[in-house]
Structure formats: structure tokens, C-alpha cells
Design a protein that fits this description.
Distance between the termini: 33 Å
Radius of gyration: 25 Å
Number of domains: 2
Shape: elongated
Number of helices: 3
Order of helices and strands: EEHHH
Strand content: 5-15%
């Protein structure tokens, strides 16, 4: 367990206090819980990045491809490129 400190403001300035064993234990549990959710946060970030890229780059290509304005497969190629750029 790592002993941490906290800064407490007082009437004559700030002082640095060492956390109690209970406070350190609670902090360790919070950090472990945060680390356990890291893969979920990364997956959510990939999804947000992909969605933004699809909307900005690929969606219009779908309609242009349907109208015959761009070559067939252009939209699928862009989606593949985005998936490669933001891998899961």
C-alpha cells in the first residue's frame, strides 16, 4: 500500500497531511476499480471515434454511391479504412 498525502487549507495557509490507513485503503480500492474498467472505457472511445468518422467521412459516400456518383465499393472501402484507423 502506498502512503499518500492530501493538502488541507487552513486559516494560515495550506498544510500537507498523510492519509490514514483507511483513507489509503479506500483510495487503493478506487484505483483498482478504475483500472478494471479500462478496457470498457477504451472500447467506448473506439466507438465514439468510429461514429464521428463514419458521420464525417463515410455517410455521404453511401448516398453518392447509391446515386452512381462514385464507384461501387467506395463507401465500404472508407468504412474499412475507419475500422483500421480505430481498431477494437
Amino acid at each position: 500500500m502506498v502512503n499518500r498525502t492530501k493538502v488541507v487549507a487552513g486559516p494560515h495557509g495550506s498544510i500537507e497531511l498523510e492519509l490514514s490507513d483507511e483513507e489509503n485503503a479506500a483510495r487503493d480500492l478506487e484505483e483498482a476499480a478504475w483500472a478494471d474498467g479500462e478496457s470498457v472505457r477504451k472500447a467506448e472511445e473506439v466507438q465514439r471515434n468510429r461514429l464521428a468518422a463514419y458521420q464525417a467521412e463515410a455517410d455521404s459516400l453511401y448516398f453518392e454511391e447509391q446515386a452512381g456518383e462514385v464507384a461501387a465499393g467506395t463507401w465500404a472501402a472508407k468504412r474499412s479504412e475507419i475500422k483500421e484507423r480505430f481498431p477494437k
